[in-house]
Amino acid sequence: MNKNNIDLSIDFCGVKFKNPFLLSSSPVSNSAEMVARSFEAGWSGVVFKTLNSDTTPIIHPSPRMNGYGYGNKRLVGLQNVEMISDRPLKDNLADFLYLKKKYPGHVLISSIMGFSNDEWAYLARVSEDNGADMLELNFSCPHMAVEGAGHHVGQAFDLIEKFTTTVKQCVSIPVIAKMTPNITDMTEPAIYAKRGGADAISAINTVSGISQIDLEAFTPKPNVFGIGSVSGTSGPVIKPIGLRFISDMAKCEDLSLPLSGIGGIETWIDALEYILLGASTIQVTTGIIHYGYGIVEDLIEGLTDFMVEKDIARVQDLVGKALPNLKTTDKFDLKRQGRAQYDLTTCVGCGQCYTVCRDAAGFALEWDPEKRRPILNEDKCLSCMICSFVCPVSGIISYTEMPGTWKRQDACVMDRSLETQIKFQPFNSNI
C-alpha cells in the first residue's frame, strides 16, 4: 500500500473532516486570523474559543500562564487561568462568517458556555445562524468561579442534561458535550449529556491543579500580582488521564457516542493512542503552544506512514482497535511470569539500574565496581522493568518470559529469630 491510498478523513456525527486533527477551544483558536493560518497549515477544523454573550464581561488575569518542564523537556505541562473569550460576541461571529466563506471545506465548531438556560439557547442559535457546523458545550472550564458555569456544571449532572436539552431544541447541527476530568467517573455525566440529546462527547478539559510555587513570593504560579490559584493543567503530563477517560467512555455500552480526544497530544503517536482507544477526532492546544501550527504536518505524516506500514487504508478502521485488549486487572494471566534480561555490550556503566533496583524494586542487582557493570540475580527479579525505564541506552534491558516451572525468590526476612515474637493469627473470615 502506498500513501496515495490512505484515507485520513473521518465522519464525525455526520460531518466530514479531511483528517482527525482539530484546534481545541483555547488560546490557539482565539480569532479568524489565527484559525486561518492553522487551516493553511493542514488542520481540518477548529473548536473556536468559547463564546461570551457579553452579559458577563471577561477580563483575563495577567499573567495567566505558567509553563514547566522536566529534564531536557521544556514544556511537559502548562498551567493556565485563562477564561473564555474576552472578545465581543459580534467580532467572534464575524470571524465565523469569514472562516466559512474562505474555508468552506473546513469544519467550524462553536464552543459555548452560558450562565443561564436562556443564555445557552441564545449562544447556540447565533452560532448556527452564523455558520457553525457543530457546537461544543463547555461543561468543563476549571477557571469559572461562578456557580452554574464551567466545571461546576460538569459536576452537576441534572444541569448537564438540562442545558444539553435546551441547546438541542434550538439548533439542527450536531452537539458535542465537553466533559470535566475533575471527577471520578466520566461515564455518568456523559450519559446525562446523552439523555439531553448530545450527539458526541469530547474529553478532557484541563485538570485542576497547582504546578509550581514561586519560592520568592510564596505564591502559586502563575503569580498574578501576589495571588495564585488552583488552575487548569494541560500538556503531556495529563495524557494518561485523558486516555483513561476516553477508554472508559468508549467501553461504556450505555453511552455509545462518538468521542473527540483531548489532552497532552504532541506527536502522531499520542494522537494514534487516543484513536486506538476510541476517539474519532483529536483536539490539540499545548502541543501547538509548544511547537506551532506546523506540528500538524508531523501528525499527518506519522499517522499516514503507520497506516502504510500496517496496511490499513482508512483511519476510521483504527478507531477503538485497542479496546478489546483493555481489561480489568482480574483478567491478567498470573500464571505467566518473567524477568528482566540484560545485554551489556553497549552499557555505559552509569549505575542507574543498580540504584533504582536497590532502592525501589526487588534488590535483584549487584554491582561490579571494576567492570562498572550490573550483575543480575535472575531469581530475585520482580519483572517490574523500572530498570529499563531509567536506562539511558536503548535496547540494553528487555523482558523475557520464564518457563512455568520457574519460581521467583521471595524477599528475604532480615531476622528470622523475631518470628516467634510476631503477634499474629491467620485471618478467619468466619469471625
Explain how this protein is built.
The strands form six sheets. Strands 3-4-7-8-9-10-15-16 form an eight-stranded parallel beta barrel, surrounded by eight helices. It folds into two domains: 3-325, TIM Barrel (Alpha-Beta Barrel); 329-413, Alpha-Beta Plaits. α3 runs parallel beside α5 (157-170), α5 (157-170) runs parallel beside α6 (187-195) and α8 (268-276) crosses α10 (295-310). Helices cover 28% and strands 20% of the residues. The radius of gyration is 26 Å and the shape is globular. The longest helix has 16 residues, at 295-310. By secondary structure, the protein is of the alpha/beta class. β5 and β6 (73-80) form a beta hairpin. The protein has helices at 32-41, 89-102, 117-129, 151-154, 157-170, 187-195, 239-251, 268-276, 286-291, 295-310, 352-360, 386-390, and strands at residues 10-12, 15-17, 21-23, 45-51, 65-70, 73-80, 107-112, 134-138, 175-178, 200-203, 207-209, 213-214, 219-220, 231-234, 259-262, 279-284, 338-342, 365-368, 373-376, 397-401.
